[in-house]
Give the backbone structure.
Amino acid sequence: MKKKNVTARKGLWGMGVKDWIWFVICVLLAFMCLFPLWLMLSNSTRTTIQIQQIGGAESLLFSTHFFDNVASLLNKGFDIFGGFFNSLFIAITSTVLCVYFSALTAYGFVGYQFIGKKVLFAVLMATMLIPGQLGMIGWYQLVVDLGMYDSWTPLILPSIASATTVFFLKQYLETTYSKDLVEAARIDGAKEFYTFNTIILPISAPALATQAIFSFVYAWNNYLPPLMILNSSSKYTLPIWIHQLNADTHEVDFGALYAGLVITVFPLVVVYLVFSRFIVSGIALGGVKE
Amino acid sequence: MALFAKKRKLNYGIYGFIFVLPFFVVFLIFQLYPILYSIILSFTNYQGFMDVKDATFTFSQYTDLIVNPRFLQSIVNTFIIWMINFVPQVVVSFLFAALFTSVNLKMKGAGVFKIVYYLPNIVTAASVAVLFKNLFNYPDGIIDKLFKAMGVFSDPTYNIVRDAWGTRILISFIQFWRYFGYTLLILAAAMMGINPTYYEAATIDGASKVKSFFSITLPLLRPIVLYTLITSLVGGLQMFEIPYLICDGGPMMAGGRWATETISVYIYHMAFEGGYTNDYALASAASVYLFLIVLVFSFITFKFFGDQAFGLEKKEKQPKKSKEKEDV
């Protein structure tokens, strides 16, 4: 025991030889994660000709043409900023709906006893195993039948029913919810809905924050449903613009393409880095069913 | 008095029902109804140009699909791509999760590494696909140039998206790149949850680290491995963005088969693209097959790993039950 402590304190930065070997391996793996994203960023600052000519270590460096590339993207009719705000609107509304109604559903399951509760919860759990693609054609038909083709409603509204979010929030509420809090409010004459908004939502805040981030990322990245139903380019979300950029194969403007990719990815990376601790611990909580 | 109390409880119960109602209404409209609609369409001859009311009953899509080489190939492709990414993903995730939770290792920066490893998972899949496609693009892609300079690709005119296995491996690598951080975090969290006294007891009994990994860590992690396996399988079988955007399911192989067309890409092609009439019936039947495959494999996974997972779940449920009763 003593011996181990001594060896551990030796070496550079308090790390022994073994720690250093692992550290280098970890750095290599981190390099693998970041390298493609780095290339995306560096290429977005180069003209297409520079991208085609370049090779070797030079490609890691930055140039100065990012805004030229963005301008060329806009000139070619790729309304990437319109797409950005469309994505932002859809992601924010979906997130608000998802988190609010998931919390409401979770509280309904945790705080009350009613007939059919177990069956309903079993149904909710079962939906997590059903592949989304099973309902793909039916969903498309439904959207057409309801006259919602080329609208955002069928992209936003379904976020009310997110089984994984409900499951996570239910797990969380089971540990934090105390009947006494609610009872006290009831004695004071508070309505149930009021109790939910003023007591249950605040005590769930940490879990809501984590789930809001996941929900936002999910909505922001959503690709297949908008691909199926969005038709007019003024309604395109960012992934659909990426699809259009990808399809534009004659005389590819690589600089503009990489700039478009950066604009889709950048906001997510910023959100992620700001909330990374929340997110990393959120995954841990979500995965461990205790 | 008791009766009165009971009545009060029942009155509150109705609020629980009201609170879960929006979820189930939306679920019925946007999830269950489309699923049932798809299943019904799969038994008709419905195609894009007709009115849905004119569609008639037929079972022929199902029989056509089982002998359709392109569809069968799409099932094979889905599993090939899933296997090539899942096996290394679990091995790497296990190794690094064990590393990050190890008590003896004094390595610095584990927190930063975790954040970096999970980063690819949040990046838009569509953008990732287009990014990798262009990095590996022949002749202008930077990684393509790099690999040729390093001799990884020996043929100077090699084009990865013209090579069936090259494209498959590229797609699998992207899936690995996107998901290993997620799997690592989940496994690490599960390992942190194991009571350290088990290891202390094992050390006192003279067990080696390797031995305690196999006889303590692994068995206790069985439920979480099951969870990872099933979520990865259900997700992997639905893989769409990456193969669709990398090479549109291509390159073509002999006999009208496609090398990286997954089941989902096949469904999308049949329903919405590719010079075909919009064959919604065939696409629906293919999605029902996809569902059946998911069911069978989830069932097999449960059978194979199940006992322990169920045992643990039961244990977890009991305290919850008593808590619920208390809270009524």
User: Anything to note?
Assistant: Residues 2-73 of chain A form one domain. The first helix of chain A runs from residue 2 to 9. Chain A has two domains: 2-73, 78-287. Chain A has a mean pLDDT of 85.
